[in-house]
């Protein structure tokens, strides 16, 4: 029998010092943890609303039934499992709608509207059953001066036009918030709202009736969270992904972010209101599941088990926020820990694709909902909870603000241009003339512009800053890596702005697939397979490495455009970035290296296949600002890619702390002039 630890938090007063007492059932111990006397006061509320489509017949007035009487069953005999599906003639006997089947076009958009799953493999995938509910999860936080909402939906991505409808609905219902920041988990087993998983590649997979339902439910979650606000404190922590996860990559370069920042809102009565964990991993274990039945299930994927584990432990509402998920596919879960130091290039076998740098250890969890999907979610949740319980700190600041910027994104991807012309993206308009001329979509979604108007955002809640990135961002785009110019597939391009150096607060979150969905986001020098761009090829770079993700990028310029807008939003609050110095790590023995654990800085696919670990760096060498010579520095502490202290350098290291507690970011990208 599985034992679940349930934590109830009770705040009691002992003299003048409030103490947080945690009571653990199922064999856990009673512990008391004092709350910092200067913990800031907030109000916080949280709520969940389902965005799971109701089964067929559950709605009294299903908008997909446009006839005054029931459609003639001798003609429209197709099986409809879900509400929001238009009647159709199953002429092939397939049991699901097929291209060419006659249907009642109740809303006049020229396509059959039905529940198709977004993302994954082997599209189209007609949803067959609900394994677990997909939902919209909202947290509302205020400080008496500003009130903002964070909402995350179980979706592959959510276009800005739908997010704007959610915000407008909340406002129309009479709720005033100073900012609503919406993102998606990148769930590839939820109904398609991007359109790219239709019954035919030339037909949108968006069910317009379902989108209307999603907007109402998502707005309702925010409104209920707003109404549920009560006095609270905010706790922050940062955890590391479990060592038994073997990171899989789909595209070069092989850079990940193992760090999971987390937020927990705790009422002044000691009960947990909400727990949010930011995880840089795809949610696709079912979408690419080789079991043809499980691949058709509606599910939140591993975030379902992640959230239920946190809710069982703490109570309240749990939220999984997608971080820098670009190219970081579902990791393999092993029975024993793997090295955290890269070893060699391995083209492993895993359904969603797995190029990795880490030798397996122990037995891998078998693929499947009750196996890999479950254990992945629970183990990630356990790591987040361990960080909150043992290393969490109460926010000392009660600052709340939010900034949003509009960007104009050129669409150089000719497949995206064709998709827009065919109406694949449904309700999304396109633009021309630097986004000054809007081309609204026709009833079938067709639009002919070559630009997209999009948004980015930054917001702060106490001791944490969040950067909202409108797509699947590769980790090294805004968190950097150990690569240099010679490691880039395309030469002659600088890296996008180092966004995290502009965030300043003790905790920093990359909120991926937020504000909009523009596809994959990476530095311009990493784009080799964007259809329509000069030099585009089969997606293989000069190192023999695949770039399968490039075909799903709007443009190779997106990283620069989005990064500049994020920096502008962040710098409107604190005008200058933290200290950035050009230099190298000093390895044991005195050699200089871009990587603090050894060489080469970049494992490729036909060369540099083995990583030569030398032991952790012992210092840094920084070039003088005038370009002549440099100096050796022994750090007081090492610094992670999120600006947190580290006991020793690892693959998440990006700089150091000096003795005065100041952060110093080490920029290893530039080539150094010969001495």
Question: What structural category arises from helix and sheet content?
Answer: alpha+beta
The main sheet comes to: 9 strands, mixed
Instruction: Give the distance, in angstroms, between the N- and C-terminal Cα atoms.
Output: 66 Å
What's the β-strand tally? Answer: 36
Radius of gyration over C-alpha positions, nearest whole angstrom: 25 Å
Strand content: 25-35%
> Quick one: overall form?
globular
Short description:
The protein has about 675 residues and is of the alpha+beta class. About 15% of the residues lie in helices and about 30% in strands. The termini are far apart.
Detail the topology: elements first, then pairings.
Layout: E1 7-14, E2 17-24, E3 30-34, E4 42-50, E5 129-130, E6 135-142, E7 147-153, H1 160-172, E8 179-184, H2 208-227, E9 230-240, E10 245-249, E11 259-267, E12 272-279, E13 297-298, H3 302-314, E14 317-322, E15 328-333, E16 346-348, E17 354-356, H4 369-391, E18 393-394, E19 400-410, H5 414-422, E20 430-432, E21 437-439, E22 451-461, E23 464-468, E24 472-473, H6 475-479, E25 507-511, E26 520-521, H7 558-571, E27 579-586, E28 592-593, E29 598-599, E30 612-613, E31 619-623, E32 630-633, E33 637-640, E34 645-646, E35 653-657, E36 663-667
Parallel strand pairs: 5-13, 7-8, 12-14, 23-25, 24-26, 27-36
Antiparallel strand pairs: 1-2, 2-3, 4-6, 4-9, 6-7, 9-11, 9-18, 10-15, 11-12, 16-17, 19-22, 20-21, 22-23, 27-28, 27-31, 29-30, 31-32, 33-34, 33-35, 35-36
């Amino acid at each position: 029998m599985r034992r679940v630890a349930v934590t109830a938090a009770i705040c009691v007063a002992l003299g003048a010092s409030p103490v947080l007492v945690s009571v653990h059932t199922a064999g856990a111990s009673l512990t008391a943890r004092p709350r910092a006397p200067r913990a800031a006061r907030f109000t916080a509320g949280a709520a969940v609303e389902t965005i799971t489509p109701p089964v067929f017949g559950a709605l009294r007035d299903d908008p997909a039934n446009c006839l005054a009487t029931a459609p003639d069953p001798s003609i429209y005999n197709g099986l409809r499992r879900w509400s929001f599906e238009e009647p159709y003639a199953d002429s092939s006997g397939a049991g699901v709608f097929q291209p060419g089947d006659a249907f009642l076009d109740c809303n006049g958009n020229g396509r059959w509207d039905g529940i198709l799953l977004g993302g994954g493999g082997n599209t189209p995938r007609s949803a067959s059953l609900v394994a677990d509910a997909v939902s919209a999860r909202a947290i509302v936080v205020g400080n008496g001066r500003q009130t903002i909402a964070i909402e995350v939906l179980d979706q592959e991505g959510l276009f800005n036009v739908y997010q704007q409808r959610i915000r407008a609905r909340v406002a129309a219902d009479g709720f005033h918030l100073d900012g609503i920041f919406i993102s998606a988990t990148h769930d590839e087993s939820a109904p398609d709202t991007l359109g790219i998983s239709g019954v035919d590649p030339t037909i949108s997979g968006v069910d317009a009736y379902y989108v209307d339902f999603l907007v109402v439910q998502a707005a309702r979650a925010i409104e209920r969270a707003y109404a549920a606000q009560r006095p609270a404190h905010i706790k922050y922590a940062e955890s590391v992904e479990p060592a038994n996860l073997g990171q899989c990559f789909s595209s070069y370069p092989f850079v990940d972010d193992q760090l999971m920042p987390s937020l927990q809102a705790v009422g002044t009565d000691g009960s947990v209101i909400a727990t949010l964990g930011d995880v840089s991993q795809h949610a696709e274990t079912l979408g690419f599941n080789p079991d043809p039945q499980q691949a058709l299930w509606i599910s939140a994927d591993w975030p379902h088990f992640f959230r239920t584990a946190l809710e069982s432990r703490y109570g309240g509402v749990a939220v999984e926020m997608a971080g820098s998920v670009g190219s970081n596919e579902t990791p393999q879960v092993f029975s024993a820990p793997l090295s955290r130091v890269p070893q060699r290039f391995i083209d492993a076998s895993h359904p969603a694709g797995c190029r990795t740098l880490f030798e397996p250890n122990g037995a891998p969890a078998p693929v499947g909902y009750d196996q890999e999907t479950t254990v992945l979610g629970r183990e990630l949740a356990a790591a987040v909870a361990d960080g909150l319980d043992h290393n969490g700190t109460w926010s000392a600041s009660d600052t709340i603000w939010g900034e949003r910027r509009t960007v104009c994104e050129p669409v150089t991807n000719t497949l995206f241009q064709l998709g827009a012309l065919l109406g694949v993206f449904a309700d999304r308009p396109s633009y021309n003339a630097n986004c000054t001329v809007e081309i609204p979509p026709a009833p079938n979604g067709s639009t002919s512009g070559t630009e997209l108007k999009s948004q980015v955002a930054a917001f702060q809640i106490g001791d944490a800053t969040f950067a909202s990135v409108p797509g699947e961002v590769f980790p090294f785009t805004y968190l950097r890596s150990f690569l240099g110019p010679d490691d880039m597939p395309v030469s002659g391009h600088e890296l996008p702005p180092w966004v995290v150096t502009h965030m300043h607060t003790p905790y920093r979150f990359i909120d991926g697939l937020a504000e909009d969905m523009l596809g994959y986001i990476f530095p311009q020098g990493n784009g080799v397979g964007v259809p329509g761009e000069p030099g585009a090829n089969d997606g293989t770079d000069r190192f023999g490495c695949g770039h399968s993700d490039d075909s799903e990028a709007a443009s190779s310029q997106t990283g620069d455009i989005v990064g500049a807008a994020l920096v502008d939003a962040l710098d409107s609050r604190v005008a200058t970035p933290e200290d950035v110095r050009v230099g190298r790590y000093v390895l044991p023995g005195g050699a200089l290296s871009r990587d603090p654990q050894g060489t080469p800085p970049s494992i490729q696919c036909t060369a540099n296949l083995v990583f030569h670990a030398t032991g952790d760096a012992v210092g840094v060498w920084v070039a003088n600002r005038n370009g002549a010579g440099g100096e050796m520095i022994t750090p007081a502490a090492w610094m992670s890619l999120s600006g947190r202290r580290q006991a020793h350098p690892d693959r998440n290291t990006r700089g150091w702390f000096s003795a005065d507690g100041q952060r110093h970011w080490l920029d290893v990208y530039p080539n150094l002039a010969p001495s």
